[in-house]
Known about the structure:
mainly beta, Methylamine Dehydrogenase, Chain H, six-stranded antiparallel sheet, five-stranded mixed sheet, 3 helices, disordered N terminus
Amino acid sequence: MRALAAAALALAACQAPGLAARSLPPLAGEGEVFLYLDPLPAAAERLSFALEWVAAVRADGLEVPLTLGFAEVDGAKASRQRLLASGRLPPGSYTSLAVKVRRATLVTEDGRTDLLVSREPDRVPVALPVSRGHATVLTLALRFSSSVSASYGFAPAFAAQVPHAPQPALSAYCTSDAASAVAVLDRRRRQVVAVLPTGRAPQGIAVDALQGRAYVALSGEDTIQVIDLASREDLPPMRLQPGDRPGDLALTQDGRTLLAVNAGSRTLAFLDPASGMERGRVPVGEEPQALLLDRSGRRAYVANRRSARITVIDVANRAVVGALATDPEPTRMALNRAGTRLYAIHAGSAQLGVWSLPDLRPVARQHVGLGATALKVDPRTDLVYVGRRDRRLEIYDPLAFTPVDAIALPGVPGWLAIDDAENLLLALLPEEGSLVAVDLTARRVVAAVDVLPDPHAVAFAGERN
């Protein structure tokens, strides 16, 4: 049995990259655990080690292998939180983690030295109750002085704990299609503190700070999941029509109207959060890609990728009032501070479109190059931020529309948001499964954190819009 378990664990570790990209079904009869490795202490910068496998050990001795997010740990580079491993577990009380190290090295005065590692897995004591349909986040902090012995042996001594979650006002929420879950982040500490399971294919998310709720579009279930952010429990969902496949969401400032753009039915639905009922819907174009609500909540804009149109909607009257012809494949939109300019980037064009509002008159087509993937306007400065496939964030002056700076990112940005209190631009990197924070004053990346595989959107109270 031990040999079979070890083989299964090794296989799980080898398959980790492929599994990370595979979408998981919604959590049902099992529980789930996510292990996040905290930044290593400064004393560990000379240490490197490779993991062979990690497993959760139940009180009755059952060992359940977890999928490794990565295996190589370099102390000189381990300066941020990383998603070390995750997995779905049978319900029960788990008392430890089993960690098998394949190799370890330490840089000494004589150079790099191989450390002795045990043939048996090391044990990490932990109190981990696993219940059906719930996920638990554990953070692992390496105690370096207890891990390396004077005889050059290495046995990782981790302290495992469930992190303290901040108030919802200080949290950010990130959907993950691949994990069928929402990651909860502490925006101050820039760490994942919880994971909330969702239904199938979560896409857009909207946060109601007044009611303490999050609305999650479940594209695979034609439903809007409603989460109480204080208790982290589900409230009665909002049902859409079969085949709607909701994507982006937007909530009016008063919290009375939730808008959902539906890729399947090519419609925009108007929902009443108080009753959970649909008030009405209007047709939009083919392959609606993105939804943008103006600051007054009076007009909404839907970018229709396949039909190369932006549909303009009167929210109060639930009526289409215009359509803007765009370059091929519009994907993201943004408004300037005064709400008098609408910007749009395109997957099929090197031009950024500009229209005047409210008259919907085309103003300019600005060259930004092929490969634009994300768009955000800072209403404090009116600077235009364009994320690019070459892993750059370009900054444009809104008057001359010339690039004034560029920031290198560790991945391709797919979603941009601004944390008003911290003056940080948050960029989701779907291919890396991470979120990075860019200091808007210093114009550099100041933090990064693994969220969940294939993140789609992020939302939080206090977003600068």
